């Protein structure tokens, strides 16, 4: 799933490549992605692209008074096409959900696709005048890179949830998902199952610093990359997430995994849990 660093990189990619263009035809290949119907998606046609923005994991394109907002969900992505075909795509065929054709001042006619792999279709698109009318945006907590250290400490003090849950809860802090929460906790040397309101002031400070360092570094590595290369750039920077069974790059211990529902997370026992192995089940506790 694209998280804050990839969304910021995609936002800046759209600023560089789409701002100044005019929206042409909008092809909807999967009607299920449209979560709003007034204004219709056709209202975007003929409008100037004036900017781009992000709210947590939501990405937006400003089109002269309207916003095209998307949440790429777990398996969605944005793909840029310099020379798209003229024939509208057939609905329900392949991963394509929506295609936006553009006309540039240089006479080029690029497009960008919103695509989603897999069978669980969760990618969502809204056309709105105000991004805050999108329910998911309205519920967001402060941006992970805009929250102050004092606000962060207050957020943690107010919940008895586990750190892994808190960091990925968009209502608490916006922009962090499964992958970067693993990386942040590893950098902070804290257990995913540590209770948020029981952290010491030093641990809170360490977690806040790790959050900013991990996300800022990922953004620095991602911005400027072509949209198609962002997934690979994300994977290349991960130390524990999706590395089950491999050695921890910090201490050499084996990276472990806890699986629950349809997700899993990874951690290093030596770096994060004092060498103890977390039971591989939901609601697990440290094995003694």
UniProtKB/TrEMBL annotation:
It is an enzyme of class 4 (lyase). Residues 239-273 form the FPG-type domain. Keywords: DNA damage, DNA repair, DNA-binding, Glycosidase, Hydrolase, Lyase, Metal-binding, Multifunctional enzyme, Zinc, Zinc-finger. Pfam families: Fapy_DNA_glyco (PF01149), H2TH (PF06831), zf-FPG_IleRS (PF06827). Its EC number is 4.2.99.18. Its cofactor is Zn(2+). Coiled coil: none annotated. It comes from the Bacteria. One of its GO terms (biological process) is base-excision repair. GO terms for molecular function: 8-oxo-7,8-dihydroguanine DNA N-glycosylase activity; class I DNA-(apurinic or apyrimidinic site) endonuclease activity; damaged DNA binding; zinc ion binding. Residues 2-119 form the Formamidopyrimidine-DNA glycosylase catalytic domain. It catalyses: Hydrolysis of DNA containing ring-opened 7-methylguanine residues, releasing 2,6-diamino-4-hydroxy-5-(N-methyl)formamidopyrimidine. SUPFAM superfamilies: Glucocorticoid receptor-like (DNA-binding domain), N-terminal domain of MutM-like DNA repair proteins, S13-like H2TH domain. CDD domains: BaFpgNei_N_1 (cd08973). InterPro entries: FPG_cat, FPG_N, H2TH_FPG, Ribosomal_uS13-like_H2TH, Znf_DNA_glyclase/AP_lyase, Znf_FPG/IleRS. Signal peptide: none annotated. Belongs to the FPG family. This is Formamidopyrimidine-DNA glycosylase. The lineage of its organism: Bacteria, Bacillati, Actinomycetota, Actinomycetes, Mycobacteriales.
């Amino acid at each position: 799933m694209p998280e804050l660093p990839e969304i910021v990189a995609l936002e800046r990619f759209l600023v560089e490549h789409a701002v100044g263009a005019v929206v042409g035809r909008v092809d909807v290949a999967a009607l299920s992605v449209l979560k709003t119907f007034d204004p219709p998606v056709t209202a975007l046609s003929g409008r100037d692209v004036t900017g781009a923005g992000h709210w947590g994991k939501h990405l937006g394109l400003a089109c002269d008074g309207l916003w095209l907002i998307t949440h790429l969900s777990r398996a969605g992505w944005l793909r840029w096409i310099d020379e798209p075909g003229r024939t509208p795509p057939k609905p329900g065929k392949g991963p394509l959900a929506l295609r936006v054709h553009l006309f540039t001042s240089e006479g080029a006619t690029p497009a960008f696709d919103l695509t989603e792999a897999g069978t669980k279709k969760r990618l969502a698109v809204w056309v709105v005048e105000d991004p805050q009318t999108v329910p998911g945006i309205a519920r967001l907590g402060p941006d992970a890179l805009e929250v102050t250290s004092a606000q962060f400490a207050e957020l943690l003090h107010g919940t008895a949830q586990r750190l892994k849950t808190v960091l990925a809860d968009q209502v608490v802090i916006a922009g962090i998902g499964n992958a970067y929460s693993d990386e942040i906790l590893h950098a902070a040397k804290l257990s995913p199952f540590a209770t948020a309101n029981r952290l010491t002031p030093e641990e809170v400070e360490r977690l806040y610093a790790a959050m900013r360092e991990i996300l800022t570094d990922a953004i620095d590595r991602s911005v400027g990359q072509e949209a198609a290369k962002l997934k690979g750039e994300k994977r290349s920077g991960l130390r524990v997430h999706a590395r089950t069974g491999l050695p921890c790059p910090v201490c050499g211990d084996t990276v472990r995994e806890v699986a629950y529902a349809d997700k899993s997370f990874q951690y290093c026992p030596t770096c994060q849990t004092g060498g103890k192995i977390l039971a591989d089940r939901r609601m697990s506790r440290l094995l003694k």
